[in-house]
Amino acid sequence: MVTKILPAGNLQAWLDSLVAAYEVYAPVEGDGASTFKKINKGQMPAMDIRTDTPPKGLIFKQVEKILSFEVNPDGITVIPGDENGTKKIVFGIRPCDSRSFTLTDKPFFDPELPENQYMGHRNASALVTTACTSACRTCFCTSIGGAPDEKTGDVWMMDIDGKYLVESLTGKGEELIKANEALFSDASADDEAAAKRIGEEVASSMPKLNIADAKALDGLFNDDAFWQKLTDKCLSCGACTFVCPTCYCFDVRDEGNTRKGERYRGWDSCMFYQYNRAAGGHNPREFHWKRMRQRMLHKFSYFPEKYGDIDCVGCGRCIRSCPVSYDLRDFLEGSLAVTGAAPVGFEKELSDVDEKVRTCEIKPADETVKTGGL
Amino acid sequence: MEKLEAELREKAKELLEKEEVTTVIGWGAGWNPAKASPLFVRDAQDADKLVFNPFCQNNLAVYLPRLNEKAAVITKPCDAGSVVALIAEGKIDRENVKVISIKCPGTVNPAKLEAAVGSLDDATAAYLDGDTIVVEVGGKAKRVPFAQVALDSCYLCNQENAFGDIVIDEGVTKVSGEAISIVPEDADSVWWRDFWAKEFDRCIRCYACREACPACYCRDNCAVQALRERWTGAKLDAKEALMFHAQRAMHVAGRCTECGSCERACPVGIPLGLLHKQVGDAVRKLFDFNVGEKADMRPPLETFRKEELESGH
């Protein structure tokens, strides 16, 4: 792995060379909301903003065609969904958002039941992470085990006083630097020390919350009064889940008719009544507070119990975007006060998905499924 | 404003102490000083957490149809209009709801304020000082005239009624100013089509606009999420988003008080207020009806008059 210095003046040249070879997505200001968009040659991304919407949708698409089908005399022809092998770079992604993909890999790179579409996009993408040199009032990455300078993604870079310290973290990342070696110079020990210092300064400027452990939180499940009081004002819309980089629930819908149609996979939200409704009409989460309980416990209890990490990266978007200013940190503080459980800290390193799983190949769908009957 | 706030707290305390209600729904401080947050006060001693200022944007009438307890709700005039509309439609258990009506100086449009002073995310204080909104960021105070950053519908406030079981008559100076319209005077259907195609292109279909709206009480049974009848397609594009927003605009026509809750709830900043004002203007013109005025009058699109049939409307 290499560590280099990129003079700020060379950033555009590096971007342009990447744009020439890949689809490059980066933070851009937009009407009403900032977001990740495909950038063109000569376009400088808004490197200093935290986007209103996460880069999640670049890899886990909000709506994606997963297949189309047509009944013919021999059976059913099934055509796999949209092309997913386009090589792309997500540039200027913050450590929290970068971390979010490592978390979403866990359920979607399941060795027994991989999510092919997600896996395709993920394996074809490289993440260039830009470390944070300041924290927002809604940031709490240090509380869930992250850091403003956490080294996640394929390339990690930090603005250190007019130049960037750039480090490759994977082979994929190293390629992006090596292909443009002339733009970079060697990094000194001083540069690395400066970056470390900035990271520590930003981290120490953020209040650190203690989080009750997964088991203790699960014990809160039946404390109806706790959840009702916590979520009095919640409107049960899906804003928090759709701006959340780690929420990964989805729904599958067919469009067309019994002879010919398309199947789509799209984001869903546990905050919606319909999400929880079972066949026959029963709804185990008929009230908004039961749905919020699900959202909180999934992130801070069930997911950590199953995969070892909290499924929240502390980006604070849910807090910023909530129409009634529901503050997730109230849940973290409130639940700790009620459970009194020893805080876990989550100091350990983010556990990565098994390398074997990450590289497993996508099996092409059978072109024709013989059904005989239809 | 301080006097109003003090009186509000006093009333809330009294209602809870006398056990006339089990909760008082008002506004409290949010994580961001430029965004007050709805607050359910259940203990008399918490009544002092209630606040009132131009950042109290949420229309609290939204909570009334789902309540199953005796509650008091604090309403600005446009929120009171929503309460009246909900009563007219039989969606509020009148016995269980006490309406505390207050005068309103107008509310801040966060998008305008951000355009004037920069991001509000890191504000450490925000308040009204005379006729100026002050936002403190990083120890620096940024000042902007309230008249420049209020919600457009506040300049044209059509909800002056003082509907309420308890009316707090403490006067406040109402903001006056002029809406700076982004709509050109000669906007035709082509302009509007292109405008909404651009705006709805970023709709993430989180339905925050719908859930923040007191008139959208169908919630769990909203037609666009119906499991059997499919009114919107699975694809995510401006066309499908328009289908949802146009449908919602028609459903709330003649029932929307133009309080601006939908627009402020939108996480991607779609100017929904424009859509609802346009529909509202049409309703006012066609039916000579102003929502929120009378609790014994059905919304115009939900009923018809004999004269309308005869006049061929």
Note poorly predicted spans of chain A: 355-374
Q: Return the domain count of chain A.
A: 2
- State the helix count of chain A: 14
Order of helices and strands of chain B: HEEEHEHEEEHHEHHHHHH
Task: Work out the helicity level of chain B.
Answer: 25-40%
Question: Which class do the helix and strand fractions of chain A yield?
Answer: alpha+beta
Write the layout of secondary structure elements.
The complex is a heterodimer of chains A (374) and B (313).
Chain A: E1 3-7, H1 11-21, E2 23-28, E3 35-38, H2 56-59, E4 63-72, E5 75-80, E6 88-93, H3 95-108, H4 116-123, E7 125-130, E8 155-159, E9 163-168, H5 171-178, E10 185-186, H6 189-204, H7 214-218, H8 224-230, H9 239-243, E11 250-256, E12 260-267, H10 273-276, H11 288-307, H12 317-321, H13 328-339, H14 355-358, E13 368-369
Parallel strand pairs in A: 2-6, 6-7, 7-8
Antiparallel strand pairs in A: 1-9, 1-10, 2-3, 4-5, 4-12, 5-13, 8-9, 11-12
Helix pairs in contact in A: 8-11
Chain B: H1 2-17, E1 23-32, E2 35-41, E3 71-75, H2 77-88, E4 97-102, H3 110-117, E5 123-129, E6 132-137, E7 140-145, H4 146-149, H5 152-155, E8 166-168, H6 189-200, H7 208-211, H8 238-251, H9 261-265, H10 272-287, H11 306-310
Parallel strand pairs in B: 1-3, 3-4, 4-8
Antiparallel strand pairs in B: 1-2, 5-6, 6-7
Helix pairs in contact in B: 6-8
Structural summary, described in words:
The complex is a heterodimer of chains A (374) and B (313). Chain A is of the alpha+beta class. In chain A, 33% of the residues lie in helices and 20% in strands. Chain A has two domains: 3-207, no CATH class; 214-339, no CATH class. Chain A has helices at residues 11-21, 56-59, 95-108, 116-123, 171-178, 189-204, 214-218, 224-230, 239-243, 273-276, 288-307, 317-321, 328-339, 355-358, and strands at residues 3-7, 23-28, 35-38, 63-72, 75-80, 88-93, 125-130, 155-159, 163-168, 185-186, 250-256, 260-267, 368-369. In chain A, strands 3-2-6-7-8-9-1-10 form an eight-stranded mixed β-sheet, sandwiched between helices. In chain A, strands 11-12-4-5-13 form a five-stranded antiparallel β-sheet, with no helix packed on it. Chain A is globular, with a radius of gyration of 22 Å. Chain A starts with a strand and ends in a 5-residue tail after the last strand. In chain A, 44% of the residues are buried. The model of chain A is unreliable at 355-374 (pLDDT under 50). Chain B is an alpha/beta fold and 313 residues long. Chain B is globular and about 50 Å long. The N and C termini of chain B lie far apart (47 Å). Chains A and B meet through α9 and α12 of A and β1, β2, α7 and α9 of B.
